[in-house]
Specification:
alpha/beta, four-stranded antiparallel sheet, globular, binds adenosine-5'-triphosphate, binds iron/sulfur cluster, binds magnesium ion
Length: 339
């Protein structure tokens, strides 16, 4: 399989300033050492509770911010070189034709759309910025994009506020596709929509990925959505990835205690297999001072002394990558404790 992106020990710490001299006194460790390979053509789902760092990861990839440290290696198609874009300046990325290859669709399209702009201009804007296409050819391209997302030429001269939430999300997808990207980050793209509309947008995204050979990172905390759309899933907890596996493998055989807890929260009528309900104690600790050792140890029902001292690394165990000292015993521990 061909890698499109590699995140290597990626960190994003937001400094907190205080005291008379407004010095840095601490930092929010939003991402604290993320290692992740993303393969061309896949839909990688990223799940985890609110605040675990999903959006911070998305924003680092599409360059809405620079990470504090680590690498983001991008392997664009038809380039003989790969690029560490982690700290590359937007101007430099544009010059190399990289900027337009990585795009994002947000949860709420209204924030990324000027209500005073016509749909035609919303979609044409990135084309004008990145190419020399003008006039009739530009309009034809915008119509082609509208049709790709299930809209028509009749929508060209309307304003975004005239559309429903689902239609606005289609316009946002058309805009994201305008520059022929290779990689799309979809950050909770359907969570503001009604369930029936959600399904339509998910189907659209799924067919576009296959048709245009796109790669997605699909961020959500909705596990059934991610199960439906993703080919592989990464589970995040407090700024780190704790488990990655193919979707089917993860749902059939979750290994990390946190993944088990997340999946056991889904009503069993929505799953093919019965899961033992694992209730986690307490809240997610603050990313200002994440726990020493395994950062899940304060809530893990199976924590031992070692977990408080030593941080587990993400290890390949065949079909899964898991960061847990007790990965080989978890299933047995769950059967005993929650029988
Ligand atoms: N600009 C910022 N300054 C300081 N802290 C921030 C900033 N942006 C995000 N954070 C913090 O970083 C952590 C990770 O935030 P992030 O938005 O990536 O979480 P998330 O997984 O996307 O959550 P959600 O599911 O709620 O969208 C959170 O603790 C958040 O409060
Ligand atoms: S390393 Fe320890 S605390 Fe962390 S998930 Fe595994 S058993 Fe639980
Ligand atoms: Mg988010």
């Amino acid at each position: 399989m061909e890698k499109i992106l590699e995140l290597k020990n990626l960190k994003k710490h937001y400094p907190i300033y205080g005291g008379v001299f407004k010095k840095e006194i601490n930092s929010v460790k939003a991402l604290d050492g993320v290692d992740l390979d993303i393969y061309r053509g896949e839909c990688l789902g990223v799940v985890g509770e609110s605040g675990c760092g999903k959006t911070t990861t998305s924003k680092a990839i599409i360059k809405l911010h620079d990470p504090t440290s680590g690498e983001i290696i991008f392997h664009p198609k038809d380039h003989k070189d790969s690029y560490d874009i982690a700290r590359m300046k937007p101007r430099h990325m544009k010059k190399n034709g990289l900027r337009s290859k990585l795009q994002m669709v947000f949860q709420d399209p209204t924030t990324s759309m000027n209500p005073r702009m016509l749909v035609k201009n919303i979609i044409a804007e990135p084309i004008i910025e990145n190419t020399n296409i003008k006039g009739k050819a530009l309009e034809d391209r915008v119509v082609e994009l509208l049709e790709m997302v299930g809209l028509t030429r009749n929508h060209l001269y309307r304003y975004s506020h005239e559309f429903s939430g689902g239609q606005r999300q289609r316009i946002a997808v058309a805009r994201a596709l305008a520059t022929n990207p290779e990689f799309l980050v979809l950050d909770e793209p359907t969570s503001a929509l009604d369930v029936s509309v959600q399904a339509q947008i998910l189907n659209l995204m799924d067919s576009l990925r296959k048709k245009l050979n796109l790669t997605y990172m699909f961020v959500t905390h909705h596990l059934l959505v991610v199960k439906y759309i993703s080919t592989r899933i990464a589970v995040m907890y407090l700024g780190k990835i704790v488990e990655i596996a193919e979707t089917e493998k993860l749902f059939e055989n979750p290994v990390h205690p946190y993944t088990n807890a997340l999946l056991s929260g889904i009503p069993s009528t929505d799953l093919d297999i019965e899961k033992k309900r694992i209730i986690l104690k307490g809240d997610v600790p603050s990313p200002l001072n994440p726990p020493e050792g395994c950062r899940f140890h304060t809530r893990c029902p199976f924590a031992i002394e070692l977990c408080k001292k030593k941080e587990p690394v993400l290890e390949d165990i065949g079909n899964h990558k898991v960061a847990c000292h007790r990965k080989d015993e978890v299933q047995e521990l769950i059967s005993k404790k929650f029988a």
